[in-house]
Input
Amino acid sequence: MQVLLIASEVFPYSRTGGLADVMAALPEALVRLGLEVTVLSPWWQSLHGHPKEVWRGSVVQEGRLLPGPVRVGQISEAGVKYLFLCTPEFDRPGLYAENDVERFLDWGRRVLPTLASMGLTFDLLHGHDWAAGMVLAHARQAGLKSVYTVHNLQYQGRWNMAEAARWSGLPTALLEEAEFYGDLNLMKAGLVFSDHVTTVSPTYAVEITTPEYGEGLQGVLQARLAQGALSGILNGLDLERWNPASDPDIRPMTARSGKGANVAALRAEFKLDDAPILSAVTRLVSQKGIDLLVEALPDVTLAWNVVVLGSGDPLLEAALKGWAQHPRVRYVGGMNEGLAHRLYAGSDAFAMPSRFEPCGLSQMISMRYGTLPVVRETGGLVDSVPEDVGFRFAGATAVDLSASLRLARAEWNDKTAWNARVQRGMALDFSWEASARQYAEVYHSVLEG
Output
């Protein structure tokens, strides 16, 4: 089976979040199952790595020459072929920008003609999140089978329908199937034009069919569920990248040794006292609930040291900078890969008070590194954090978070109970193999009609 995976970013070549991590691990797991896998992503000007240019030319769509040449670069790694398509709108510094929907509309209409010009064909297309939605609209028109994965329903890619129709090159009647309050919605395009929709955890697949989590698209998702065309597949974890026994950024660690050395090193690095360390590595956005942690800090800092790594909402950044004057609070802005690894390994607990969480990888990483997650009961956090390992709470409030952290702090005093949780967490299997098999089953069912 020849499968083309389409996404806006893929680690280590481009990354802003968890989508890139999935696109690094899932293709390799599919290859190990015997599939032929190609990944297609934009050729960002700031791309890490040096693709070899394998094609350059102009693109003709429906007999019309599209403006500007395109380039395709290639990198092959671990049996996966990575293709990077550069259109005129992507030949500029940085990654995402204000005109992203326009850019991905143009990029999406060039994908199939470019692949055809290169002589490439695939049995099935697998698009990821809103940036791939336009490609699946063109695939539907071309009669190609496709699967679509929702990583985060909140980000939908909306643009004025009249402008979108001018840019897309698709019939108005087809585009209107992806209409959303007068706009073209690229997330909806992926939902309605694909043959099967998946999302990144079983619980989130149920949640998004409700008004609370459906982001206005719950009706479409309810229809796909009724058709038997919506399912949830829990993301896996790249166990080579996140291996505490061989991670070069930390002291080597196993379920039996090394945790204490990492905690001591982190305590020394940030000049913290003897209280347990609670960390968060996150985007500072409403979804992640870090405002709840900030609100709870007067109570939390009575029993915990707190270290937060991340950036996002300027108000949250400012609040954390202010709290960083407290002897038990540290805040580091931006993203620092090495520090993230040290926080996972050197903390006692990890905070994820998410308002919603499609899957989440941080809770899996923290458990693998012997750090117990304190999580809200939502989405993939429910599916991945057993109650006998982490600490779960129901309400999206600072009061609920504080109460859960008080329970965790009390248990931290009982080293036997705490260490038993740690060892159960480190023994959990979050490999991609099981998830990849489920995706392969979806692919087969789609191709078999």
